[in-house]
Amino acid sequence: ELIIIIIMLFTPQLFGPSEALVGEIVKFRCELANHPKNEPVLMHLNRTKWMGDSSSLNGEAGTFTLVIKRQHEGNLVCKATLQNNTDSVEATFSNTHYLKVVGEFLYQYDVSLQFFEGATLNLSCQTTAGNYLTYKWLLNDRPIPRSPFHVMSDKHLLIYRTTSKDSGSYKCEASNEFNNTVHTNTSKEVVITVKDVVSNPDVSFVVLKWNSHNYSAEVTCNLTRGTLPITFSLYNREQLIGNVTSKERKATFKVPVVLGQHMGWLQCQADNGDRTAHSQWMALKNQLVGQVMMTYECDMGENYAVVHVRFFCKVAKGSHPSYKWFLNNTLLSEQQSFYRVDNQPPGESMLLLSVGRESAGTYHCEASDSFDNTTSISSMKLYMDKEGTADPRLSRLLAHVYDGWVSSLLLRFSAEPPSCPGGGGRLWMLGLEMKKNIIAYEGELVSVCVSVITSVIYCILKGDFCHPASCGFSLESTLNVHLPSLY
C-alpha cells in the first residue's frame, strides 16, 4: 500500500531592522508558524542573491547575522525549504523587508590640478559607501553659489569658462540621515589652479647714454595679465635679440643704437605655456628734440573771471623729450600751492596754474632729450598777470617788463586805437583802466605808448617812434617804466 504524506510549510515571517549603518553587525530572524516535527528546515535570506543560511530542527527561528555593506540595501526575503527537499514540498517565501543602508564616504576626484582659463572644470564626489546622500561643494571653505557657469548636479560640479577666480581649495560634503540624525563627511581638499593666459604685450623703449659716443635702447616688454612665470622674447624682424623667463609681468632688453638712425622694427613675444602673445611692431628710431612750442588754455569762473590757466609745452619733433618749466627764469622744481606739473605722454607737459598774485610773471619751458640734458631748447616766453586774462596781441615789450619795474600803469586810450604815422601799423589798447589782464608772447610786433624817464610819451611800433600828439590818444595819467634795451 502506497502512502503519500504531503507536508505544507506556512509562509515564513522575516524580522529585522529597516535601517543600518555600513559596517554595523545586525541580526535578522525568520519564523515559521507550523514547523514540521522532526523535519529540519533550511532558511535562506533573499530570493535570488544568497546572503546567508540557517537551519532549524525543533521549531526555533532561523537567524542571520550580517556585517552591513552597501550592497545589502534593498528588498530582503526569507526562503524556507525542507532540508531533504523533494518535489512534493514547495519552498515558501516571506514578504519583502526593505533595508536602508547608511554609510561612511570616501571621495575621488578626476581632475587636472592646473590648467588655463577657459577650460571646463569637472569635479565628481565619488562615494564608496552610503546612499540617500546630498552633496555640497565648497571653495576655500565657502559654499559655491550657483550661476550660469557654476552648475551642481547630484555629485558633480561643472564650471564652464573658468578664470583665475575659480582657483582655490575645493572640498565636497556628503550628508545623509539615520535615526533622525544627519551624518556629514567632508572630503580632503584638492587645490585647483586656473592659470591666466598672457595678454598681448606692450613694447616701449628709452635711450641710455653711456658716454659721448655710445648709446643704447632699453626696451621694455610689459603685460597686463598672465600667470607667472612668463618667458619674454624680443625680435628685430626675424632676428632673435634675446629671451628671458621672468617672475614679473615685464622684462627689459638692451639694444645698441645710433642717434638719428633707424635701427629696425622690434616685436615682443610672451608665453607662459598656453599660447604665444605678440606685441605691435615698434620702430627703433630715436629722433632728437627740435623746436619747442608753448600754448595755453583758460578756465573761467563767476563773472567770467579766469581761475585757472593751463600752459602746454610740446616739441615739434623728438622721441624722448624731457621738460622743465620756468617762472621769471626761475626753475619750477617742486610742486607749490599755485601750480602743478603734469607730464602727459606722448611727449607733452602741462603746467596748471591758479591765477593770483604769486602766479603772475613770465613763463617759458625748455625741452631736452631725456638721455642727455646738457643741451636744451627754450620756448618763447609768455607773460601772465595776476588775473590771468589772455591778450596775445601785446609786444615783446611786456614780456620783458619783469626785467625792470612799473611804478604806475594807468593809461587809457580812445576807444578806437589809431594808426601811428610813419609806422604803418595799429596802436593796440593797453587796457581799460587796467581791468583787463595781460598774457603776452615774446617777439610779437605790436605797439604800445610809454613815457621813458620824462613825461614825453612815445609810440613804439616796430622800432619806429612818433610824437604823442600824432598817436591820437587821450592821456589820463603817466606810465613810468624802466626798460632794458629791447632791440
Structural commentary:
- The chain is about 0% helix and about 45% strand.
- The protein is mainly beta.
- The protein folds into 5 domains: about 15-100, Immunoglobulins (Immunoglobulin-like); about 115-195, Immunoglobulins (Immunoglobulin-like), CATH 2.60.40; about 200-285, Immunoglobulin-like (Sandwich), CATH 2.60.40.10; about 290-385, Immunoglobulins (Immunoglobulin-like), CATH 2.60.40.10; about 395-480, no CATH class.
- The strands form 11 sheets. Strands 11, 13, 14, 17, 18 and 19 form a 6-stranded mixed beta sheet that branches. Strands 30, 31, 34, 35, 36 and 38 form a 6-stranded antiparallel beta sheet that branches.
- The longest helix is centred in the last third of the chain and has 4 residues, at about 395-400.
- Mean pLDDT is about 75; it is low at about 1-5 and about 390-485.
Uncertain parts: 2-6, 389-487
Q: Remind me, CATH topology of the largest domain?
A: Immunoglobulin-like
Which overall shape is indicated by the principal axes computed on the Cα atoms?
elongated
Portion in strands: over 45%
Rg over alpha carbons: 49 Å
What distance separates the N and C termini?
163 Å
Our count of helices gives 2
Task: Lay out the secondary structure.
Elements: E1 13-15, E2 19-21, E3 25-31, E4 41-45, E5 53-56, E6 62-67, E7 74-76, E8 78-82, E9 92-93, E10 97-102, E11 114-116, E12 121-124, E13 134-139, E14 142-143, E15 150-153, E16 156-159, E17 168-178, E18 181-186, E19 190-195, E20 202-209, E21 215-222, E22 230-236, E23 239-246, E24 250-257, E25 262-271, E26 276-278, E27 282-285, E28 292-300, E29 306-315, E30 321-327, E31 330-331, E32 339-344, E33 348-354, E34 361-369, E35 372-378, E36 382-384, H1 396-399, E37 405-408, E38 439-441, E39 448-451, E40 457-461, E41 464-466, H2 468-471, E42 480-482
Parallel strand pairs: 2-10, 11-19
Antiparallel strand pairs: 1-3, 3-6, 4-5, 4-8, 7-10, 8-9, 12-16, 13-14, 13-17, 15-16, 17-18, 17-19, 20-21, 21-24, 22-23, 22-25, 25-26, 25-27, 28-29, 29-33, 30-31, 30-34, 32-33, 34-35, 34-36, 36-38, 37-42, 39-40, 40-41
